[in-house]
Amino acid sequence: MMTTLLKRWSTATLVLLMTLFGADRLAAQQTSAPADGAQWNVTPFVGFGFSGDLDSGTGAVGVAAGYNWSPSVSLEGELNILPSSENGGLVEVDSNAWSLTGNLLYHFAPRAFRPYGVIGLGFGHASADVSPSTPGLGALDPSSTEFVVNFGGGVERAIRANIHFRGDLRYFVGGDLVPDYWRLGAGLRFGLGGR
After folding, report:
1. Dist CA 85 CA 126 (whole Å)
2. pTM score
3. How confident is the model over 100-147, as pLDDT tens digits?
4. Relative to the CA of 139, which of 46, 58, 166, 193 has its CA 20 to 30 Å away?
């Protein structure tokens, strides 16, 4: 099932990339620099994960580093950490998880609050606190690494030159012990210089 889901998301991601890059090249002919002039950026963020495979809300922290490919398209790498969460199923276990993804952000028309859509693909790792003496769970592998897909959207607002507030809502799709969940996050994007 995860293989079928991964194939669907991979296909959708490729179609989206081709569509956005083709349309964005036309827009790039009209404008040549991102709104804040910064080419590289870094975004530390905090948030919380909820729903999906998580039985209760849990904190999330991370950092993203990005490159403004054009005024509308940004590419970023993101490390997202869920330090502690409860995963349900037949037996409830405490776990911690992290994911490392490559994301594509498409920024819509410039406004005071600039909306964007995001889609990403990468991998995640989770480990569970399973006691070897727990009946039926002693033989299970307490950790797993899986492909992760995330998608969602958010808004960005300039605070100063090269400093933006950013908030978004994303859904992460994992597998095995790597949870599926929603993440609501907020951070500050710092531009690291111009072209």
Report:
1. 10
2. 0.74
3. 999 999 999 888 999 999 999 999 999 877 665 655 555 566 788 999
4. 58
